């Protein structure tokens, strides 16, 4: 089987939160017990903002354009887990993640894609940060109080 296209090693992390700093976390279907914010790789020809809007909709059913989607101007470079490297071109070992915040008025029911996520939960930001399996996701959530109060 020939692979048609590899993932671009550039992605978004979208911290979905309320004004009271409750954060939405999703449990990964391929790793039960691994909780995270919305994430996803940039598609060819997409801006990072478009990637964030698309991923939020695909993973939650929420329309990020109807809420306060904001580029936090934060990036994290991390090593791609070996078990997921087959999705990328040969030799690609690192990804550059761009962080966004999305403020919704209150915790909302979301629509999960069963092949991607098993469950969701709204948690106070400290609890959400502690539950994340990804260091970059936890670090982004820990910046939430500062990001919400910055212009």
Structural class category: alpha+beta
**Unreliable segments of 5+ consecutive residues:** none
How far apart are the termini? 50 Å
Number of strands: 7
* Mean pLDDT across every amino acid position: 94
* Fraction in beta strands: 25-35%
SSE blueprint:
Layout: E1 10-17, E2 22-28, E3 35-36, E4 38-41, H1 48-60, E5 68-79, E6 94-103, E7 117-124, H2 125-131, H3 135-142, H4 144-148
Parallel strand pairs: 1-6
Antiparallel strand pairs: 1-4, 2-3, 2-7, 5-6
Describe this structure in words.
This protein starts with 9 loop residues before the first strand and ends with a helix. The strands form 2 sheets. The chain has a 4-stranded mixed sheet with strand order 4-1-6-5, sandwiched between helices. The protein has a 3-stranded antiparallel sheet with strand order 3-2-7. The longest helix has 13 residues. It has a single domain, classed as Nucleoside Triphosphate Pyrophosphohydrolase. The mean pLDDT is 94. The radius of gyration is 15 Å and the shape is globular. The chain is α+β, with helices and mostly antiparallel strands and 151 residues long. Helix 2 runs antiparallel to helix 3. The chain contains 4 helices and 7 strands; from the N terminus they run ββββαβββααα.
Notable features of this structure?
151 residues, alpha+beta, Nucleoside Triphosphate Pyrophosphohydrolase, 4-stranded mixed beta sheet, 3-stranded antiparallel beta sheet, 4 helices, 7 strands, globular
């Amino acid at each position: 089987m020939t692979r048609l296209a590899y993932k671009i090693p550039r992605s978004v992390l979208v911290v979905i939160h309320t004004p009271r700093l409750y954060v939405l976390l999703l449990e990964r279907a391929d790793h039960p017990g691994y909780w995270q914010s919305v994430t996803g790789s940039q598609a060819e020809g997409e801006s990072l903002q478009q990637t964030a809007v698309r991923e939020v909709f695909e993973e939650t059913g929420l329309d990020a354009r109807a809420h306060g989607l904001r580029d936090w101007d934060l990036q994290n470079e991390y090593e791609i887990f070996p078990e997921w490297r087959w999705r990328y071109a040969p030799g690609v070992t690192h990804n550059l993640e761009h962080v966004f915040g999305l403020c919704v008025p209150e915790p909302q029911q979301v629509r999960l894609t069963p092949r991607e996520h098993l469950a969701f939960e709204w948690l106070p930001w400290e609890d959400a940060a502690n539950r994340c399996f990804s260091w970059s996701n936890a670090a982004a959530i820990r910046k939430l109080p500062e990001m919400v109060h910055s212009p």
